[in-house]
Amino acid sequence: MKRVALLLAVVAVCAGCGGSKPPKFTAQATVLPSPVAPPFTLRDDAGHAVSLPAKPGHYVIVTFLYTHCPDVCPIIAGNLNRALKTPTAKQAGLTVLAVSVDPKGDTAAAVRTYIAERALVPTFHYLIGSEAQLAPVWSKYHIGVEAAAKDVIGHNSAEFLIDPTGHERLLYGKGVQPEWIVSDLKTLMKES
Hints:
34% of the residues lie in helices and 23% in strands. By secondary structure, the protein is of the alpha+beta class.
């Protein structure tokens, strides 16, 4: 969270800088000062390596989920999946990289079941690994993860929208809605 707080402070300080008018995003998105998104490579349920930065020219949302989550994660996954199905997301080449916060419970089989039950589209990549593989990604994105109870993992909810140049542009919380993403993608695509 220190990184996010620092990013927000920089945004506030720089808000009056320069002569150009900043783009207008949805009120629900926190505008980030465009740092380069921390790179990583993890594997999906089929064992394929998936990396950030992703394909040049494509937008990416990085989020953090776990398959056995009883409440918030399924809602986030559903909302991101609905956003991916929109014409705007397809035009932007949007992909979602969902990084597991549960290395023990998020097995390849559990992820395949999760994907099938929620009809997640192929541009929704659920990334898994051991704690040694996942923890550095959590740390780079300042995601706190702890076992709260049996099969319950406490973690921050954050969705980072990354532009085609690999820079973090917007941050959403657990209430992220497909229409916010679509609106913000349209704004970003106009400025590029």
